[in-house]
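User: Can you recover a sequence for this backbone? Please restate the input before giving your answer.

Assistant: Of course. Working from this structure:
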């Protein structure tokens, strides 16, 4: 169905986006009032897109499964948003942001898309400040910045540890203005169950009212999917429990290619797993690595004593601690990219130096930062001979101002004071770089179907740098889609409203109802969570931080068998014609059981290590990722053919004209 034409404009990299905007077709304001757009997902990407479309004059329908767009998973983002405004005067630029992002993604992202992202990043900050987002400011009144992993400059704008929440409130306020104007019709507690194509174009969706159970038809001239990532295929992740792949996967089943499903980011700074009772994991922002130092004991016997509760970490001197990131990567230290930091933590724990009861944790320690800030504050306040206690008090005040809500969250979950006792952290599934394949316009291989934010694959390659998710989501929604979708919709000004009583809508609705009926007719041996947890164990054990051919082949077989058992034996109580959260979960897990197999298949076909995709067979002598640019410098885009085993691989070759490909080094 689709042809992998990325539609990248010609010309110099720095001029592509400007020239593109000069050349595209436009829709005049009067004609925009005749055109309808559906936006699925109301996080940062979807919310900003919907608000901007409506501001331009289009008629917009938004759909989210939450009771309010304010509950989108974007709210959970903590540490910050990147932009190349160079407020620190430390040499940042659009090119450096572009270069760091491509390098951070291990040279597996598309140059033109990433440069455009860097180019519009500064506009995002201006837009959000105008909306009232309370970014942190430094003493002169300018917006403050901090550093994130994989870069040597400070370009991350932040609002304490609540950046995602504050940005989402800004987008939500912009949406609300358009809802009050009647330009946005918000369908909360609705879930998209399928995509409707008419004459090969995306013309609407079938949605389920999650409160009444009613199946609804909604039409539009274009459909935007901004429904986030698929990290919950692992069951345990930092994602919200409701985060799912349904909208993207149902579009995939209708012909949208799915790109790089095996590219999953493991975040190094999460609260470790504590037992089988857990249903999700909690993120501790990467921003903490600005001031926190990561370490394990140097001696195996000390690590064992700490695990057994016979020794406290505060009893170990500096000489008895292994600050292994600073030792292995002196240039970047604790601020190496997430994939590098995660593998390093796993290596230390696998070697027996883990520090919690399970041996799967390392320390994140703020002692040095508290002392450093305390001495600095003592000088500022004129204390000539401050006591150690006074220095600690002053230092803790600064750390509290920067990260206080994160420390409070950690203490509530773990019941330990992180100002005194080092935090315990371990890597966990966080973000997915794979997603629906899109061209430069953010259009999938289905005409009229667009994907934005984490739902598409376009910007992060094999590993996302911290604070780039919020940047991409808002760039796509505020500054990219409003242009690119207008070029497409300029051909629809005479189309008129799309009717929902067509044969195409009839057929897709029947497919949806048949699928629900099949789910409800399971023999009833096991709960939905039973299957989700089993899938999660397979994914983590064989497709997690490291993979190998043997494990991936086993995963493909085991997931296929689990999927068959699911459809035969899942138990869903209640009925389909009302509120039924088990039915909601079942539909999502059914999609994960297909995605998981394609994930493993994609990882098996990529015989190299790059970014978050670490194949044990392909690593350097020092245990670093070993890329194969000769054979795997491409985007894997999979076409749906029924069973995941039958999916067909298409390749988009990646061309680098402005960046030299070389082995990533953070040493």
């Amino acid at each position: 169905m689709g042809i992998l034409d990325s539609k990248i404009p010609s010309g110099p990299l720095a001029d592509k986006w400007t020239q593109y905007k000069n050349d595209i077709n436009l829709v005049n304001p009067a004609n925009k009032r005749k055109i309808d757009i559906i936006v699925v997902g109301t996080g940062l990407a979807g919310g900003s897109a919907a608000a901007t479309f409506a501001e331009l004059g289009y008629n917009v329908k938004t759909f989210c499964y939450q009771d309010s767009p304010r509950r989108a998973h974007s709210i959970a983002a903590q540490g910050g948003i990147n932009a190349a405004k160079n407020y620190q005067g430390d040499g940042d630029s659009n090119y450096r942001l572009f270069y760091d992002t491509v390098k951070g993604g291990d040279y597996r992202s598309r140059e033109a898309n990433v440069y455009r992202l860097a180019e519009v990043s500064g506009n995002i900050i201006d837009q959000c400040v105008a909306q009232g987002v309370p970014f942190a400011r430094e003493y002169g009144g300018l917006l403050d910045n901090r550093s994130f992993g994989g870069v040597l400059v400070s370009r991350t704008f932040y609002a304490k540890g609540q950046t995602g929440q504050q940005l989402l409130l800004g987008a939500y306020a912009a949406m609300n203005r358009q809802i009050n104007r009647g330009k946005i019709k918000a369908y909360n507690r609705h879930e998209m169950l399928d995509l409707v194509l008419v004459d090969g174009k995306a013309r609407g969706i079938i949605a389920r009212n999650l409160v009444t159970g009613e199946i609804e038809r909604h039409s539009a001239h274009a459909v935007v999917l901004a429904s986030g990532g698929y990290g919950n295929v692992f069951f345990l992740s930092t994602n919200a429990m409701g985060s799912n792949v349904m909208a993207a996967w149902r579009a995939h089943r209708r012909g949208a290619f799915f790109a790089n499903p095996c590219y999953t980011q493991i975040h190094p700074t999460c609260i470790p797993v504590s037992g089988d009772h857990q249903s999700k994991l909690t993120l501790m922002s990467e921003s903490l690595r600005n001031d926190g130092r990561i370490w394990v004991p140097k001696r195996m016997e000390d690590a064992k004593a700490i695990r057994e509760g016979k020794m406290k970490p505060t009893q170990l001197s500096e000489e008895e601690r292994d600050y292994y990131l600073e030792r292995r990567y002196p240039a970047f230290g604790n601020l190496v990219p997430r994939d590098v930091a995660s593998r390093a933590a796993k290596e230390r724990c696998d070697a027996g130096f883990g520090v919690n009861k399970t041996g799967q944790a390392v320390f994140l320690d703020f002692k040095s930062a508290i002392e450093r800030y305390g001495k600095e504050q003592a000088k500022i306040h004129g204390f000539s001979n401050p006591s150690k206690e006074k220095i600690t008090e002053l230092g803790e005040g600064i750390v509290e101002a920067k990260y206080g809500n994160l420390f409070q969250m950690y203490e509530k979950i773990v019941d330990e004071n992180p100002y005194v006792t080092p935090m315990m952290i371990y890597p966990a599934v966080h973000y997915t770089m794979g997603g629906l394949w899109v061209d430069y316009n953010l259009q999938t291989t289905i005409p009229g179907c667009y994907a934005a934010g984490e739902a598409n694959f376009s910007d992060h390659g094999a590993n996302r740098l911290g604070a780039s998710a919020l940047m991409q989501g808002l760039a796509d929604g505020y500054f990219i889609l409003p242009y690119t979708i207008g070029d497409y919709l300029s051909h629809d000004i005479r189309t008129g409203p799309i009717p929902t009583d067509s044969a195409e809508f009839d057929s897709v609705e029947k497919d949806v109802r048949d699928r629900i009926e099949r789910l409800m007719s399971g023999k009833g041996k096991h709960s939905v969570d039973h299957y989700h947890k089993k899938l999660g164990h397979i994914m983590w054990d064989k497709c997690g931080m490291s993979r190998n051919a043997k494990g991936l082949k086993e995963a493909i077989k085991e997931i296929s068998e689990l999927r068959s058992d699911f459809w035969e034996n899942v138990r869903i109580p209640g009925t389909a014609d009302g509120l039924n959260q088990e039915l909601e979960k079942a539909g999502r897990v059914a999609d994960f059981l297909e995605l998981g197999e394609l994930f493993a298949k994609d990882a098996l076909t990529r015989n190299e290590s790059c970014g978050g995709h670490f194949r044990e067979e392909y690593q350097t002598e020092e245990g670093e990722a070993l890329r194969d640019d000769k054979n795997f410098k491409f985007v894997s885009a999979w076409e749906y053919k029924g069973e995941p085993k039958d999916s067909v691989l298409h390749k988009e070759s990646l061309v680098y004209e402005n960046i030299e490909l070389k082995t990533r080094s953070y040493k």
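That completes the design. The longest strand covers residues 423-432.
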